[in-house]
Amino acid sequence: MKNEIEIKLLVNQTFANFFNQKINNYQILQCHQHQLDNCYYDTHDHLFSQLRSGLRVRKENQQFIMTLKTAGSTTGGLHIRPEYNVHLATAEPDLALLQQFAELQLPRPLSVLQTELQPIFRTDFTRHSWLLELENGSKIEVALDQGIISAKQQQIEIKEIEFELQQGCINDLLTFIQHLPLIDGIRLSAISKAERGYLLAGIGEKRTFNFTTQWQHLCKHIPRDFTFITSLFEYEQQLSEYTANLVPVDFINKPQETQQLLNAFYQLYQLDLQQLSLLDSIATQNNFETINQLFESNQRLYSNLQQLIKYYQLEQNNVLVIQRLQAIFHQARYVIRNINWLKLLHQS
After folding, report:
1. Are both 20 and 91 inside the same structural domain?
2. Residue 312 belongs to a domain
3. Among residues 200, 226, 256, which one ends one of the domains?
4. Residues in Cβ contact with 268 at an 8 Å cutoff, skipping those fewer than 6 apart
5. What is the CA angle 17-19-20, rounded to 5?
6. What is the pTM of this model?
7. Same domain, 192 and 67
8. Same domain, 167 and 194
9. Per its UniProt record, what InterPro entries does this chain match (predicted)?
10. pLDDT 10s per residue in the chain (348 long)?
11. 230: in domain
């Protein structure tokens, strides 16, 4: 068992092409391109989905590897998950091979689960990967994945870049991404390929997010200490993920919902600025620059949102306002800002 520590970026084709060129500027230890064909399995009652886990069999270079990824933690696109890998002789999953991991606890015996397994969905994609070595000796695997997720005769696109820490500390990973030559058309994502596959297969429920209720809970029940800063960031990630996945045309006749969403971001960035001002007074040598950069980026976001609210009051164009909100989350500087948040949380 190992802990997988990675950052995931959803990208467009323009950024994928741009990144393919820029990655050659780094110290590359290895470079590979493979076709990865994956089938995900679950029980008749979707036990692995309920456990926020994913069981897959991957075919790579005529070899088969079974992987069980269990529930870990996800914060702002930073994923930390335990995973168990075993080699297979064929493409058929064999849960008995997981018996070697004594720490793995499942609610049913492996022998029972084995009889209940059935294929649920597939992810088939080309992976272009690079193993990079940083100046301090840390190693990061960068993978550009492009392909499809398929289930029940439906398909959705995969186009993402994963940055996985192979050697070093989380701050090395965050600093590396922060200094990449990023351009617009990217977004940090907390949703895995497996979660997208389950949704396509009609299993589980799409993430729901009542931002009004969450905000009230946050303001009333979370103590105003560093825990509050962490909760603010997690709330923003949920709010931005929710907004990024909206269908703008659905808001043509929803002026109240549009205004509520604008107000949610306005309240958030206003409170962010207040909390960062307080943090500035207790900044350390390690996080002083990070806090200053966050304060500047939040001021810019707050100003942009004020302008968007004024525009909406004049034009009442719900669809365009939702589109402009979504565009914010696909800006390179928004991604860098969120990386700064993650650095602050891990430095403190």
Report:
1. yes
2. yes
3. 200
4. 215, 232, 235, 236, 239
5. 65
6. 0.90
7. yes
8. yes
9. CYTH-like_dom_sf, CYTH_domain, YgiF
10. 778 899 999 999 999 999 999 999 999 999 999 999 999 999 999 999 999 999 999 999 999 999 999 987 777 678 888 999 999 999 999 999 999 999 999 999 999 999 999 999 999 999 999 999 999 999 999 999 999 999 999 999 999 999 999 999 999 999 999 999 999 999 999 889 999 999 999 997 666 678 899 999 888 877 777 788 888 898 999 999 999 989 999 999 999 999 999 999 999 999 888 887 777 666 676 778 888 889 899 999 999 999 999 999 999 999 999 999 999 999 999 999 999 999 888 876
11. yes
Measured distance between the N- and C-terminal CA atoms of the chain, rounded to whole angstroms: 28
Q: Kindly report the CA angle at 177 between 172 and 178, in degrees rounded to 5? A: 95
The Cα–Cα gap between 186 and 334 comes to 9
* pLDDT computed for residue 331 by the predictor: 95
Per DSSP, the three-state class of 82 is strand
Q: Which amino acid is at 3?
A: N
Residues 13 and 157 in one domain: yes
Asked whether residue 250 is domain-assigned, the answer is yes
Q: What is the pLDDT of residue 155?
A: 97
Place of tokens 């500390």: 169
Q: Which domain holds residue 291?
A: 211-347
Q: How far apart, in whole angstroms, are the C-alpha atoms of residue 52 and residue 190?
A: 13
C-alpha 178/C-alpha 339 separation (Å) is: 6
Beta bridge partners of 298: none
| Residue 154, in any domain of the structure | yes
CATH number at residue 178: 2.40.320.10
